[in-house]
Amino acid sequence: MERGIRKKEMGIFEKFSSKVTQITGSTSAFIVAVVIVLGWLVSGPFFNYSETWQLVINTGTTIITFLMVFLIQKSQNKESLAIQLKLNELVASHEHASNRLVNVEGLTEEELKIIQKYYFKLSELAMKERNILQSHSIDEAHQNNEFKHKKHPPRAERK
Question: What is the pTM of this model?
Answer without folding.
Answer: 0.58
